[in-house]
Amino acid sequence: MAMTASTMMPLGTSAPDFKLKSTENQWVSLSDYQQAKALVVLFICNHCPYVIHIAPKLAEIAAEYQKQGVEFVAINSNDAEQYPADDFAHMQAEKAKRNYPFAYLFDETQDVAKAYDAACTPDIYVFDEQQKLVYRGQFDGTRPHRISSGNYDSEKNPATGEDLSAALDSILRGSKPSEPQLASIGCNIKWKAGNEPK
To answer: Interior CA angle at 36 toward 107 and 14, to 5°?
Structure first.
C-alpha cells in the first residue's frame, strides 16, 4: 500500500464527462446527474483500507444527502488483473455488502481517472448545480488504525465524514465550501503497466 495524496484539481473546473457500466450492468454518464443540487464523484475500490475505513459512514451520508437532492457516484479505476479483489464481480459484492445507495462504476480503461486527475482511493470531488468543482479533498481527518501488518481496527477512530458533510451543507445553503481544503489521503490508484499518468 502506497500512501498517496489527492492532486487537488483546481476549483471551478467543469466535471469531466464519463460513461461507465455500473454494478447493475447499466450505463451511467455525467448527464444523468444534471438535475442534482450537488454531485459527489468518488474514486474508490474494494480492498483499500482507507476506503474500507470510510465505507459505513459514506453509505450513511450518501443516503442522508440524497434526500436533499445531492447525488453520489463512485468509480473504481484499479487494474483488476493485478488486483483481482477490485474486479467487477467483487465490485458487485462490495456494493451489496456496504449497502451503497449510489451507482458504483468500473473504469476499466482508467481514462476517467486520468480525466479527473485522480490519484488515490478515496479521491473525492464535489460539483455544484452547474457541475463546477467546489470541493475536493478528504472525507474527514480520520485514518484507518493499523494494528498489525495488513490488519486494521475499524472500530478505533471511526470515520465521521465531517469535511464532506460541511462542504455539502455549504452548497445546500447556497454558499461555497470554505477553504483551505485538505487533500484526501489513501492508497494509490493501481495503474495498468504503462498507463500511469505523467
So the answer is: 60
Report H helices in 67-198. 88-98, 111-115, 162-172
Q: Beta strand 133-137 with 123-127: parallel, antiparallel or unpaired?
A: antiparallel
CB-hemisphere CA count at 13 Å for 185?
7
Q: What DSSP designation does 12 have?
A: T
Q: Could you give the residue ranges of the DSSP H alpha helices within 15-173?
A: 49-66, 88-98, 111-115, 162-172
* Residue 7 · residue 13 · CB < 8 Å: no
For 14-49, write each residue's pLDDT tens digit.
999 999 999 999 999 999 999 999 999 999 999 999
Per the structure block, which three cell numbers stand in for 99? 449497502
Global pTM exceeds 0.90: yes
- Residue ranges with strand state E in 111-192: 120-121, 123-127, 133-137, 145-148, 151-153, 185-188
